[in-house]
């Protein structure tokens, strides 16, 4: 596992580098990832707008910031993501704001399709669902825990919709985006901090 982590970290981006990579590819008419379609490009463009908005509006909760400041060790937060992923566009800016709140967390972002060996270790119900946050102790590169691809409320919304309609269609995706809009990143912050607290307990 450590060799897989090392390789992914070597291939990873800082948050600003990730944003620049996605933007540069869009300018070339491309999305991140090994598959290129008009839909993926459209989603990437839409996600650019979402991320720009979230970077300006997301506020880290005082309680969350206080708990982060009490971390004693240094950690790497390694996130598997892609520019076309709607969930990633809603979640990664929140993770970025949390990591930027103190110097004990180094946020790195690795593209899912370029790091399949790592993705295979963190499947969700057998699928390559993203984003996936992997919490790593910096000194040892030991994986302590992981989180994702969605906060619990968003996960439940999709489960309920699929149970009622049999599919996850465009209407479901719109409802999911509304959920993120109303939640304002609060569930993401609380769930990740609670995960950290369980790891350290």
Task: Give structural notes.
The chain is 55% helix and 12% strand. Strand 3 and strand 4 form a beta hairpin. It has a single domain, classed as Glutaredoxin, CATH 3.40.30.10. It is of the alpha+beta class and 201 residues long.
What would the CATH topology be?
Answer: Glutaredoxin
CATH architecture: 3-Layer(aba) Sandwich
Q: What's the domain count? A: 1
**CATH top level label:** Alpha Beta
CATH superfamily: Glutaredoxin
Proportion of β residues? 5-15%
Order of SSEs, N→C?
Answer: HHHHEHEHEEHHH
User: How does the helix and strand content classify structurally?
Assistant: alpha+beta
Question: Which strands sit side by side, in order, in the main sheet?
Answer: 2-1-3-4
- The coarse silhouette is globular
Query: What summary fits the major beta sheet?
Result: 4 strands, mixed
Tell me the total number of β-strands: 4
Mean of all residue-level pLDDT scores: 95
- Low-confidence parts: none
Q: How many DSSP helices? A: 9
């Amino acid at each position: 596992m450590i060799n897989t982590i090392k390789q992914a970290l070597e291939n990873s981006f800082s948050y600003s580098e990730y944003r620049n990579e996605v933007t540069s590819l869009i300018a070339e008419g491309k999305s991140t990832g090994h598959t290129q379609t008009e839909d993926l490009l459209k989603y990437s463009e839409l996600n650019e707008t979402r991320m720009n908005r979230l970077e300006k509006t997301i506020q880290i909760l005082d309680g969350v910031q206080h708990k982060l400041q009490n971390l004693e060790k240094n950690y790497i937060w390694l996130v598997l993501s892609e520019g076309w992923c709607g969930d990633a566009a809603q979640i990664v800016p929140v993770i970025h704001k949390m990591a930027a709140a103190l110097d004990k967390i180094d946020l790195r972002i690795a593209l899912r399709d370029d790091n399949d060996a790592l993705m295979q270790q963190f499947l969700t119900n057998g699928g390559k669902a993203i984003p996936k946050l992997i919490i790593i102790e910096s000194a040892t590169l030991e994986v302590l825990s992981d989180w994702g691809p969605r906060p619990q409320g968003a996960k439940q919304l999709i489960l309920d919709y699929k149970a009622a309609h049999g599919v996850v269609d465009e209407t479901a995706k719109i409802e999911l985006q509304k959920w993120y809009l109303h939640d304002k990143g609060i569930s993401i912050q609380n769930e990740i901090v609670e995960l950290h607290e369980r790891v350290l307990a």
